[in-house]
Amino acid sequence: MKKEYSMVPLRKKILPVLLTAVFLFPLAAHAEIKANSVELSPFIGYHFFEEDQNLKDDFVFGGRAGYNITNRFAIEGALEFINTSVDDKNQAFTTEGQFTSPIDDVKMTSYHLDVLYHFMPEKKFNPFIAAGYGAAHYSPKINNENLSVISYGVGAKYWLAENIGLRADLRDNLVVDDTFHNVEATLGVIFRFGGASEAEAAPAPVVRREPAPQPVKKAEKKVVAAPVEPAYTVLEFDDVYFDFDQSTLKPTAKIKLDEYIKLLKENPKAKIRIEGYTSEKGTAEYNQDLSEKRAAAVKSYLINEGGIKPSRLKAVGYGQDDPKAYEANPDDIRSRAAKKNMRVLFEIVVQ
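Given the sequence above, the corresponding structure tokens read:
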């Protein structure tokens, strides 16, 4: 009579493997699967034979070679080897595909072609599902042909460096000819070659550069773009003005800064230098301190009211140096030249 198969022993074998997989990989950190890349992965693991096949569970080793068609879909081939032996030598033959005495040592070679789907390709931790088709060759043979195998299961990749990672797989290798479910758990190392991330593969943004403006004399600077070194574009904003001996922002200055906040949010890579200046009235030491306070007031407004990151801002004061306009009479604090010099200047570099 054919031996009745029970799933209980198989479940007991799978449970420790699942628990190991859960604790093996931590939560995801940032990284990604690269499209058009090749992955080579030697592995070792353990193969659990179905009880009716009468083979001892044993180690399996082999290798995989895969190609990432996109960052989500991949195709790979696998070759693996197992050296095992008959489990119960006193058992009588009861079902097709079963090994019994006088056979002792059994070698199995299998190969299959699989398709993988990655669930989080942009992360450092990449869980996936896999399914494929192949064949298993037993020596000594069970029959005159290799046995067809459908392989399916789950796994995960964890990248230790840009092109080196770890991999875990849990597969059910269904022997189609004899309906054996042989479960396999493996761990391997991944070596990746070539490919490009999604960000690298995307076309670079087009930066439009305005021609250098001709120098003109105006009361206010308009937003212009001036070419500098090839890697940067320098933008200048209208100056923000202050009252004499004051570092408090005027309502008109806040309106301008609100406009600049919108522009800065549209250019998140911009790094800003905020330069404070004063008129020539007063001592150099006093004016230096006042110019720093003016620059700091603008920086504080951009951070607190606009939500601009402090790491993007640098505030400096230059006192009465480098005036915007020449002051013929520094004591005249209401002169047009003095008002032009009581300002904060912006310089923004976009990488």
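The chain has two domains: 8-201, 224-350. Try to locate this feature in the token string yourself.
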